[in-house]
Design a protein that fits this description.
The complex is a heterodimer of chains A (319) and B (375). Chain A is mainly α and 319 residues long. Chain A is built from 14 helices and no strands. The model of chain B has no long low-confidence stretch (mean pLDDT 88). Classes of the chains: A mainly alpha (319), B mainly alpha (375).
């Protein structure tokens, strides 16, 4: 039963949803503080390439090198995000243009390709990669076993991250401050919260998450280097944050739904139905638009909504 | 010791000389940054720049190829500039260009027996109409439901890409080559020879017809924004929606109109892809090129001035062309993307100098005799 195509596809939906989940959690932090970072794809690629480089060049046991590589990926993503943060927070640049510039700078035809080319990363597969771990020995349970308990450490860690980010935003003082800044930076400033400091921290932390998301590709899903190996996941992550109403727990659900929708045509085709795969692949995007319309119309605006200051630079003198 | 204080104030008047000096300075800064990257990674900076410049503008046929690369960027850059000037952040030029290509190639197949001038007009109209229709969706949502156009236009890019894939790879559509080979290797129907747009040759440089169309569009956009009431109102709405409403301007209509115009320009870019260069609805090639996103970079570099957009498209087109030409083992791949990003970053940073005055002052030293608690 666990070898049936449905289970296999569901398990791969979880595996492929994981990089999306990391990236979306990062973008969630940035957006909650009011910074719309469109550079997710670029930060993911930089994380992916630096993580891969670390695995190839650092000597040591597998158990040491892999966590180190993830840390390097997170650091790389954070540094890329820091550049953006400097531009949009200190220099007050347009967030959309700066985000796109970051993606072009770091992206498939930019820095990530440059680094990979310089260290000749495309020649060999990764020396170590994350493998499936049989969690609590539950992998053999029917259906849920392979889907939930036969995944890599990166997947299990992502669940912890969802929990932590969710609790941070809803139950801690700094988390509430972030949300205040996202909604009304002037009011937060008057309360004595440093808008710039919080925005810097959360944009950078968001970059670190995106870097780890990129590393999911180069260290687990496809442990080798191809230029642009994230294949647009960063853009989907931006959609996912909206789809999840800017909430960490819904990001988890959304990531797997998005993963399942791209896998669904395969199941249906295997069962002998003739389907148009594009119709299913388009659904997440169309649903994101629908969600956004609901959020921005009267009903949604009251309870679930985009941070009101999203994309708007905060300048104390101009409030 | 007290630290010097940095104060940033908005300039009331923009200095003319700064508007020229800052972009030039940004270019210099970007090149220095890239030179440092090259040195650190063991490449000779001067020689690399020289090769790049040579491949972009000087070598045999380089200018022709740079113009080919510049043409779609000029269209998508103008599309972005038109919308961004009204603070409508349409990042959907990518999808609007796909739909323009679908419209133009569809009409060219339909009117197969016609003469070239008829086909050119038909393709431009077909591209503009479908591009405008695709741009109207985020426009209508923004105007009537206050939905953020950034995300909707971004999402629609993906839907447009999937539509393109559907037409060529997963259906027996009107656009697909349904001959025996076309069924095995999915590709679009080839357009008739008469649907090939003419090339103007000056000396050894071939100028694509689409580039001339883009230049004409730039002029129209300039007239629109500087000489018409419509353009003036659009800018007021962008700068201050409330003031515009009090003045009785029709905000919603203008939002939809500008989004349609932006989409139409990108759509003509798609038509130019069909007529000037590809001559077949090339689903994969169009998606790999990322014209829409690069167009936004072009528009930002040009500070949304339509004539400057055409020039910036030529500069970036040259870079891209050089990137393709020099693709080899001894030339650092990815350098072109790094350069584009760096230049844009430097420009964005420099923008601060144009719009704000930065003064660094040392706070006045207090002498001991003043009533200050000893520290």
């Amino acid at each position: 039963m666990n070898n049936s195509i449905v289970v296999v596809v569901l398990a791969s939906a979880v595996a492929y949803g994981t990089p999306l989940l990391y990236a979306a959690l990062g973008e969630l932090l940035a957006e909650r503080s009011g910074v719309l970072n469109l550079g997710v794809e670029g930060m993911m690629l930089v994380g992916a390439v630096m993580g891969f480089l670390a695995v190839q060049k650092i000597d040591g046991a597998k158990g040491v090198v892999l966590p180190l590589a993830v840390a390097v990926a997170a650091l790389a993503g954070a540094v890329a995000a820091l550049v953006l943060a400097f531009l949009v927070i200190t220099l007050r640049a347009n967030q959309i243009v700066a985000g796109l510039a970051l993606t072009i700078l770091c992206g498939a035809a930019g820095l990530s390709s440059y680094i990979a080319n310089d260290f000749e990363l495309a020649t060999d597969p990764a020396r170590y990669s994350f493998e499936e771990v049989n969690a609590f020995g539950l992998q053999d349970l029917p259906v849920v076993g392979p889907v939930l308990f036969g995944q890599t450490w990166l997947v299990y860690a992502s669940w912890v991250c969802v929990l932590l980010v969710g609790l941070y935003l809803s139950r801690t003082r700094p988390g509430l401050n972030v949300r205040a800044i996202g909604e009304a930076p002037a009011a937060a400033d008057a309360m004595g919260i440093s808008v710039a400091k919080y925005r810097y921290l959360h944009t950078t932390a968001g970059g670190a998450f995106a870097g780890v998301g990129g590393a999911c590709f180069s260290l687990a899903l496809t442990p080798l280097w191809v230029d642009g190996l994230t294949g647009g996941t960063g853009w989907i992550a931006i959609a996912l944050v909206i789809f999840a109403f800017w909430r960490a727990d819904l990001c988890l659900v959304g990531a797997y739904v998005f993963g399942a929708f791209s896998a669904l045509p395969l199941i249906l085709q295997a069962k002998g139905y003739t389907v148009t795969p594009q119709l299913f692949q388009a659904l997440p995007y169309v649903m994101t638009i629908v969600v956004l319309v609901i959020v921005s119309s009267g009903i949604g605006r009251r309870r679930l909504g985009a941070p009101a200051s999203l994309g708007v630079p905060y300048v104390r003198e101009e409030r | 010791m007290s630290l010097p204080q940095v104060r940033i104030e908005k300039r009331l008047k923009q200095r003319r000389w700064l508007m020229v000096a800052v972009p030039l300075g940004s270019l210099v800064v970007a090149h220095i940054a890239i030179a440092i990257l090259l040195v650190v990674t063991g490449h000779p900076p001067i020689a690399t720049f020289r090769r790049l410049f040579d491949a972009a503008y000087i070598a045999d046929g380089a200018l022709t190829n740079s113009l080919i690369a510049a043409t779609p960027l000029a269209f998508t850059g103008l599309a972005a500039a038109v919308a961004f000037r009204m603070k409508l952040f349409n990042i959907g030029a990518e999808g609007q260009l796909y739909f323009g290509a679908i419209g133009a190639s569809g009409i060219a197949i339909l009117l197969a027996g016609q003469s070239t001038p008829v086909l050119i007009v038909a393709m431009i109209v077909g591209g503009a109409v479908l591009g405008a229709a695709w741009g109207a969706i985020p426009g209508l949502l923004r105007a009537f439901l206050r939905t953020n156009e950034i995300i909707t236009s971004l999402m629609l890019n993906y839907v447009a890409a999937l539509a393109l894939n559907y037409l060529i790879f997963d259906s027996l559509s009107y656009w697909r080559d349904t001959s025996a080979t076309g069924l095995v290797f999915p590709q679009g129907k080839a357009l008739a020879d008469a649907a090939t747009w003419p090339v103007t040759t000056i000396g050894s440089v071939a100028i694509p017809f689409g580039f001339l169309v883009a230049a004409a569009v730039a002029f129209v956009v300039w007239v629109l924004y500087t000489r018409t009431r419509f353009g003036f109102e659009a800018q007021v709405i962008g700068d201050s929606p409330r003031a515009a409403r009090y003045a009785g301007m029709r905000t919603r209509r203008k939002i939809v109109a500008i989004m349609c115009l932006s989409g139409a320009i990108a759509g003509v870019g798609g038509a130019s892809q069909m007529g000037d260069f590809r001559h077949v609805l090339d689903a994969r090639g169009l998606q790999q090129a990322n014209y829409g996103y690069t167009g936004i970079v072009v528009a930002a570099l040009a500070r949304y001035n339509p004539f400057a957009v055409v020039f910036a498209a030529f500069l970036l087109g040259g870079l891209q062309n050089a990137g393709y030409t020099l693709q080899s083992a001894d030339f650092p791949s990815g350098l072109v993307g790094v350069m584009q990003g760096m230049i844009l970053f430097a420009m964005l940073g420099g923008e601060l100098l144009v719009q704000y005055r930065i003064s660094i002052s040392r706070p006045v030293r207090h002498t001991r005799t003043q009533t200050e608690p000893a520290s």
